[in-house]
């Protein structure tokens, strides 16, 4: 039976990794470190001096260098004996949270091996794990933490098993080609308001709001002054001897379209992160109510039928050096003809006049809300005629401005 050694915790067996194969000559050249190349040049120069000047000391130095390289080569001649796999149980976290990962190392040989080094790239940095001596086929597990200060993607791996000599002349690396992608979602907040937008539509869904005229029948009731005579139910009227009318439930159509301006010149870093969080918060508020929502940047539509897919897409959103927001608004309302509410997320440099122009791009029967993000903007609500302009400085302000003024 294989031995197993666990540090901190033992978790379920990770996915199997596969070692990448490299051409022998390329692997040999890649094993020489900058220090090793410097020693090689030194040996060549010393040999030239010894041959041309008959300098005995130079020959001795060259031989010492050759011996050092030979000893280093014997140390790294065999590939690292460690089989490495990594696992991150939760591959989706929110910015500011910490993810927990596990690295599992197994000695694939039938005899004990000495301590080794495992390198694990995490984002732009690299973690280093010192693996203790392992017995035949023994396994060693180690837990590690991944901090996430900002939204985005963090690549964890591929892990590298490393063998090197004490002088650092040669370094042999065995890579394992199964990196894990950690999605860091934007911070979102629950919006305590139905900001979806409705339009009456006979093909919509029934609601609990009663109406005297619609297509979703609810019940019969006594006639009241002002009721439409066309709603009179004559059979019940004849049987009961008084006017009885049909009661309906309103049917609503709801399709919220959210447009996020991703033009680079419209944002500073902090404001753009707030804008992404606002976009995610509004999108999730629709999905929680099972109402259609479409989210787009100035470049492309984002998947928005499932909350997790929307958040994954928002993890990768970045500001671009180009983007035509007015053109994208026109395209959005044309490609989503059933839109019942339009929300635009714009940068702090957007003027009231520009916001009013954007509001006029939507169909006249579609309410438009423009949320202007900016740290120096006080919470305010302005009527644009064809829509409203809301100033939002931080994500925490979003519920307050919606409760105070609401979306259009």
Automatic annotation (TrEMBL):
It comes from the Bacteria. The chain crosses the membrane at residues 25-49, 55-78. Pfam families: DUF58. The keyword Chaperone does not apply. Residues 220-295 form the DUF58 domain. Keywords: Membrane, Transmembrane, Transmembrane helix. This is DUF58 domain-containing protein. It comes from Actinomyces bouchesdurhonensis.
């Amino acid at each position: 039976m294989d031995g197993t050694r666990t540090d901190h915790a033992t978790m379920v067996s990770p996915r199997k990794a596969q070692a990448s194969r490299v051409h022998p000559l390329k692997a040999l050249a890649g094993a020489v470190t900058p220090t090793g190349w410097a020693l090689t040049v030194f040996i060549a120069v010393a040999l030239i001096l010894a041959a041309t000047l008959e300098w005995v000391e130079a020959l001795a130095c060259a031989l010492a260098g050759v011996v050092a390289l030979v000893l280093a080569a014997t140390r790294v001649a065999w590939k690292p004996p460690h089989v490495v796999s990594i696992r991150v149980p939760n591959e989706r976290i929110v910015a500011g949270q910490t993810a927990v990962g596990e690295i599992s190392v197994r000695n694939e040989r039938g005899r004990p091996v000495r301590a080794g080094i495992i390198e694990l790239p995490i984002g732009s940095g690299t973690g280093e794990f010192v693996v203790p001596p392992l017995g035949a086929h023994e396994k060693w597990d180690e837990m590690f933490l991944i901090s996430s200060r900002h939204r985005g993607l963090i690549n964890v791996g591929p892990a590298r098993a490393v063998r090197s000599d004490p002088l650092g002349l040669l370094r042999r690396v065995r890579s394992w080609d199964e990196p894990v992608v950690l999605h860091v979602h934007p911070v979102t907040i629950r919006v305590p308001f139905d900001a979806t937008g409705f339009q009456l539509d006979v093909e919509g869904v029934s609601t609990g709001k009663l109406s005297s005229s619609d297509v979703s029948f609810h019940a019969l009731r006594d006639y009241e002054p002002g009721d439409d005579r066309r709603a009179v139910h004559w059979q019940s009227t004849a049987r009961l001897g008084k006017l009885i009318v049909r009661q309906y439930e309103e049917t609503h159509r709801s399709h919220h379209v959210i447009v996020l301006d991703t033009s680079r010149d419209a944002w500073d870093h902090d404001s753009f992160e707030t804008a992404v969080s606002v976009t995610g918060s509004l999108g999730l508020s629709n999905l929680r109510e099972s109402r259609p929502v479409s989210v787009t940047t100035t470049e492309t539509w984002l998947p928005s039928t499932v909350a997790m897919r929307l958040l994954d897409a928002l993890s990768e959103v970045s500001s671009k050096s180009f983007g035509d927001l007015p053109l994208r608004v026109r395209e959005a309302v044309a490609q989503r003809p059933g839109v019942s509410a339009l929300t635009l997320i714009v940068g702090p440099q957007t003027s009231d006049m520009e916001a009013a122009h954007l509001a006029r791009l939507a169909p006249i029967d579609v309410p438009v809300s423009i949320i202007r993000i900016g740290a120096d903007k006080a919470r305010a609500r302005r009527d644009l005629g064809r829509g409203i302009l809301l100033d939002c400085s931080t994500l925490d302000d979003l519920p307050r401005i919606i409760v105070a003024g609401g979306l259009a």
